[in-house]
């Protein structure tokens, strides 16, 4: 398929996405069935016999399955299990290992039951306090195995709707915890629903463009190996390109793809963030955001978690990906049928940052008359 993308002309990219990247109905149904099996297991069965009562407040589908950007044949799902027993970010950090151990134990228990026709293949983890448990699930009814990552998390947000904007105090507490522990971005799982909603609501064509960028990234991974930037950073970069360069439900895919590759090639100028879920209104959050946005570029802040600079800490990976993007920009795919060049969108490399208000110390003088 890689060779095919390299030789696809600009006007055939939509057809390529439709034929090779969009998951078919059967695949989608398989993943949905598998997710339902695991969700029911986690909610109703998994902690039933635990030594201490464990309550699952919700199980949230994250990753590409949750966001609606799954690529055909890539059957993976992230499930975040929110537990009422975790009552703080620090709690999640210290206790997630014990819950993962219990989930693992129960998966093996289920395996031994003859009437249960589901097969779990658990990937062993060397870490005693691992962040997630990975396993594969297969049943006689599924056409292929589905891979899962299950992650226990602290339910800091409670009930979430597509219109939710968390109380700024939640972010102030997150920032305080992350900076004191030196673990920025560590608790992004707590904000999975916001990450999912941020991408899920985008028009169908934007999700198709994200699939194309993800497929291109996978080809780069096969060719270049590690280190490379996070794939999530490129998904967010694609949203930024569309929001600022086009914003319409219908657009020319080749223009969007070319724009994203150009942004990657100029990675040292990127400073991108959103104020959908957090902003500069709360003093502590504002102070922290200004600090984050002054960091060495590229900076792409997770729209759901200001402590996560998903583009940070990997200059070598960006350099290698940028060189590859430049190679791709020279390909004939960006020629139109008439031989002229496909245009790219006019997209800013950086989002403006509001002026930081100086903190005024108040000196009170009391005069006795």
Topology:
Blueprint: H1 2-7, H2 13-21, H3 25-45, E1 56-62, H4 63-67, E2 76-83, H5 89-112, E3 119-122, E4 133-138, E5 146-154, H6 168-181, H7 192-200, H8 204-224, H9 231-245, H10 253-265, E6 271-272, H11 283-293, E7 299-302, E8 305-309, H12 315-329
Parallel strand pairs: 2-5, 6-7
Antiparallel strand pairs: 1-2, 3-4, 4-5, 7-8
Helix pairs in contact: 8-9, 8-10, 9-10, 10-12
Task: Name the descriptors.
five-stranded mixed sheet, alpha/beta, 369 residues, 12 helices
Q: Specify the number of helices.
A: 12
Distance between the termini: 86 Å
Strand content: 5-15%
Q: Enumerate the strands of the largest sheet in spatial order, edge to edge or round the barrel.
A: 1-2-5-4-3
Low-confidence parts = none
Sheet having the most strands: 5 strands, mixed
Query: Rg from C-alpha positions?
Result: 23 Å
Classification by helices and strands:
alpha/beta
> Quick one: how many beta strands?
8
H/E element sequence: HHHEHEHEEEHHHHHEHEEH
Report the helical percentage: 40-55%
Shape verdict: globular
Instruction: Provide the residue-averaged pLDDT.
Output: 88
What does this structure look like?
The longest helix is centred in the N-terminal third of the chain and has 24 residues, at 89-112. It contains twelve helices and eight strands. The strands form two sheets. The chain has a five-stranded mixed beta sheet. Strands 6-7-8 form a three-stranded mixed beta sheet. The chain has helices at 2-7, 13-21, 25-45, 63-67, 89-112, 168-181, 192-200, 204-224, 231-245, 253-265, 283-293, 315-329, and strands at residues 56-62, 76-83, 119-122, 133-138, 146-154, 271-272, 299-302, 305-309. Helix content is 44%, strand content 12%. The radius of gyration is 23 Å and the shape is globular. The N and C termini lie far apart (86 Å). Helix 8 packs across helix 10 (253-265) and helix 9 (231-245) crosses helix 10 (253-265). It is an alpha/beta fold.
């Amino acid at each position: 398929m890689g060779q095919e993308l390299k030789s696809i002309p600009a006007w055939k990219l939509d057809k390529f996405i439709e034929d090779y990247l969009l998951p078919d109905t059967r695949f989608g149904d398989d993943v949905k069935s598998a997710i339902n099996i695991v969700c029911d297991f986690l909610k109703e069965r998994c902690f039933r016999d635990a030594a201490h009562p464990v309550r699952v407040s919700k199980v949230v589908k994250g990753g590409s399955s949750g966001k609606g950007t799954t690529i055909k044949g890539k059957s993976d799902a992230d499930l975040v299990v929110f537990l009422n027993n975790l009552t703080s970010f620090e709690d999640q950090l210290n206790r997630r290992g014990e819950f993962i151990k219990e989930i693992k134990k129960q998966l093996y228990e289920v395996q031994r039951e003859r009437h249960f026709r589901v097969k779990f293949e658990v990937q062993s983890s060397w870490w005693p306090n691992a962040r997630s448990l990975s396993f594969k699930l297969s049943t006689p009814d599924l056409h292929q195995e589905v891979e899962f990552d299950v992650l226990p998390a602290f339910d800091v947000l409670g009930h979430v709707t597509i219109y939710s904007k968390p109380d700024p105090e939640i972010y102030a507490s997150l920032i305080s915890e992350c900076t004191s522990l030196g673990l920025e971005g560590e608790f992004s799982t707590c904000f999975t629903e916001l990450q999912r909603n941020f991408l899920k609501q985008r028009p169908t064509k934007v999700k198709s463009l994200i699939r194309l960028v993800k497929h291109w990234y996978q080809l780069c991974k096969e060719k270049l190996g590690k280190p490379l930037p996070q794939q999530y950073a490129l998904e967010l970069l694609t949203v930024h390109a569309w929001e600022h360069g086009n914003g319409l439900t219908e657009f020319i895919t080749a223009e969007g793809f070319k724009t994203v590759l150009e942004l990657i090639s100029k990675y040292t100028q990127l400073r991108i963030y959103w104020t959908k879920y957090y902003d500069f209104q709360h003093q502590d959050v504002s102070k922290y955001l200004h600090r984050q946005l002054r960091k060495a570029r590229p900076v792409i802040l997770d729209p759901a978690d200001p402590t996560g600079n998903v583009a940070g800490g990997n200059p070598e990976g960006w350099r290698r990906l940028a060189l590859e993007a430049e190679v791709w920009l020279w390909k004939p795919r960006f020629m139109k049928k008439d031989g002229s060049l496909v245009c790219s969108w006019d997209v800013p490399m950086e989002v403006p940052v509001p002026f930081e208000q100086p903190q005024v110390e108040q000196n009170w003088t009391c005069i006795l008359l």
